[in-house]
Known about the structure:
With 554 residues, chain A is an alpha+beta fold. Helix content of chain A is 37%, strand content 22%. Chain B has helices at 58-65, 151-163, 179-189, 200-203, 206-211, 266-272, 286-296, 308-319; strands spanning 10-12, 15-18, 23-25, 33-35, 50-54, 71-74, 79-82, 85-91, 99-105, 108-112, 134-138, 170-173, 196-198, 219-221, 235-238, 255-259, 276-278, 300-304, 322-325, 334-336, 339-340. In chain B, the strands form four sheets. Chain B has a seven-stranded mixed beta sheet, covered by helices on one side. Chain B has a six-stranded mixed beta sheet with strand order 1-2-3-4-5-6, with no helix packed on it. A six-stranded parallel beta sheet of chain B has the order 14-13-15-12-16-17. In chain B, 51% of the residues are buried. Chain B is an alpha/beta fold and 349 residues long. Chain B folds into two domains: 10-145 and 283-340, Metallo-beta-lactamase, Chain A (4-Layer Sandwich), CATH 3.60.15; 151-278, Rossmann fold (3-Layer(aba) Sandwich), CATH 3.40.50. Chain B is globular. The chains are: A alpha+beta (554), B alpha/beta (349). Chains A and B meet through helix 5, helix 6 and helix 19 of A and helix 6 and helix 8 of B.
Amino acid sequence: MQAFADLIQQLERSAGTKDRVTALATHLQAAEAADGAWALALLLGKRRRRLITGRRLRQICLERSGLPEWLFDSCHAQVGDSAETIALLLPELALPPAPPLELSLATWMETRLPALAALESEAQAEAVLAIWAALPDGQCFLFNKLLTGGFRVGVAAGLVTRALAQVSGLEEAELAHRLMGGFDPSAAAMEALLAPIEDGAAAPISRPYPFCLASPLEPEHLAATDPAGWQVEWKWDGIRAQLIRRSGQTFLWSRGEELINASFPELEGMAERLEPGTVLDGELTVWLAQAPQPAGFGPLQRRLGRQKPGAALLRECPAAFIAYDLLERGAQDLRPEPLSQRRTALEALVQELQEAVATPAAGLLRLSPVLPLGSWDELQALRQQARSVGAEGLMLKALDSAYGVGRRRGLWWKHKLEPMELDAVLLYAQAGSGRRANLYTDYTFGLWDGDGHLVTFAKAYSGLDNSEINELDRWIRRHTTERFGPVRAVDPLQVFTLGFEGLQRSSRHRSGLAVRFPRILRWRRDRTPESADSLSSALALLEDPAAQRSTAQR
Amino acid sequence: MALPGDGLIQLTPQGLYCPAADAWIDPWRPVSRALITHGHADHARPGCGAYWAVRSGEGVLRQRLGSGIALTGVGYGEELRLGEALVSFHSAGHVLGSAQIRITAGDETWLISGDYKRDDDPSCAPFEPVTADVLITEATFGLPIYRWRPGRQVAAEILSWWREAPQRPSLLFAYAFGKAQRLLAELAALGVEEEVLLHGAVQTLMAPYRSAGVVLPPTRPLSELPRGESLAGRLVIAPPSAHRSPWMKRFKAPQTAFVSGWMAVRGARRRRGFERGFALSDHADWDGLLRSVHDCGARQVYVTHGNSDGLARFLREERGLAAEPLGRAFVGQRSEEGELEGAAAPSVA
Lengths: 554, 349
């Protein structure tokens, strides 16, 4: 495991992409296949099973050290990670010296860690302490991380595939594809992954294609182009999914590479009508049979993560797959074809299927309509209509483009609606974790109620730049009025414009409102807390989202 | 929590005040008489009528506060009568000329620790344990996650970090007063005889250290080097404020590292954006704090700076001592040793 610990340290220390790829490639090249497979799975974040909770490790650490709980928690607040906190506190445990323990990564992952997890309480504590005593310095943190399933390296999947490409001589896109749909860490899987194309075993029929991703629109890139070269669609407010029908089986994959067949039985039924060797890219939504538009994200959330939904839920929240691309037809990979041709084929396929089945089943597969756009001047007006059809903006896709692997700038653009906005007052702050440990970055904001009180409205973690974060952190420390464990109440003086995607009524929140994806848009140093918005302005937005005052009016 | 209003030392808007001596200790604002523990900016401020400080720290103080200040240099352990009080300065092991200040009046003795550490440091006198009835201690690193390794060991790691990159300039960021000279002295002790380049802010502190007889490798201000001369393989020491400043334009593909106690924590290392973080501090670590409180034998402890609440609670609940944090006045968190983040002078006492 030392080699892997060294790799993690090297990745942390090297700033340049090239150095990181080299470090990864060198490690994967040198490692035994089984260890390399585990390293890969861990780097890609595909193995995050929790074997022992962080809480249990904390308990073992506390029992042995006799440290008071509150002091451990103060340490944790400073470090932002329980695995690291424990590693730093090991000297407090006064463990007897033990001969160093060096095992391969595969041995740890396949044998030793699961065995630890299976032990009973007292025996488990003893075994963990014995390992802590015997681990070389740098490995304790890693061991704790692997045990608690929280292991995450700050390395983009793209860099890992680039390193794999260097090791194997294969194309990055080919490797990205081979890695889709999960990677089961074993020597055999590693060898299959890196095998040359000719003698590569047949791909598993469940394997999805890497999703083509869109970048936020940069209008200056469009202005010079002909609008006729672009396919404009709604940006649907559901979840991205890939529907695969191969060899008599159906696979519905989410963008996070989860198989979600079980949650959407009606789509499985629909897919049986697709020809073998068909792969659709599209949006998963809830769409009531007679409704003109999808039902929004709230109802979809009721379906997500629910295995085997009951009849009532299926009736209340029926799913629909809005198709917008055809990646495979007749078992042939269509991705190299231009979008214009894929679209023609997709339209034909959807029409065939809709004609073949009786309504309402026809509503299960829908075609994402292509929107007319004569000139770029019309783009803003079109985008403004998105909310009225339940969409969250526009998509622009180059008609002559092949279906890309990952985010390739310039092929697909997303043009989301401007968020709704309210000015709210900072009420509470809590320190973040990881990179933001011991820095007050988790903020809670309030709006005025009718009685002149500030009521908690939303939490937001993002939107400020580093210098603003540091400045606000100092301000918070100097203006703390009360502490509740890790949370500080502050003088209600600072006003921020919050942006969010939507509001929903909620009995679980004190304000009576749940806020979707709130974030900070601006620090309003020009505003006094008295001039912040009230709950009634939030309610007005809930009633009529179009009532959003434009920024110019404020 | 504030100090009792009738005690030997009191907390005033200007800072800690001793009525018997009619003098302030490390005052935040100009006062008539100031006793200075050491020359870091959050302890030594300009504008006071008269200063008392340790003689070996005199050079640094005059440089920072003005050569014309009315400063009385005092030797370690020398007893001084100020008004009704007996005052003495004792080595704190923090930086060159740093002191704990012990004040006796009537039948009571107080010790104000200033900043201190217990670890070996070839650039200054070692910490001297001092007893008192009441102790005011700092707690910048008052958590058990902070536990320092010997400076020599960290310096050896820094040396190999430097040696392993002969094609790149090695930019080492360290607090300009104290940490930089401690590192240089450790490198000299490891046998480094090669010239080390310095940022201007570090350069100005070299003369006092050299005249105090600290063994250091040869150094030269970076600004004296001809433009265009290759910096590959050179070690350059600069204050953290120079990181990502225009000053860095001169370096082609440098490797960067930050030396600070805060670097013990991974999140802090990642947040700072240095390639390497070396955990080395001129403040006491957890064990150092506990040991010093114990050695002092005080019946009452007040805790300032950093995790003052936590250390005070630990002393109270786990060690049965009378211990209290010293209020909001010292709350500002230090970003680097000796450097306060944010407004330097607290507005409330």
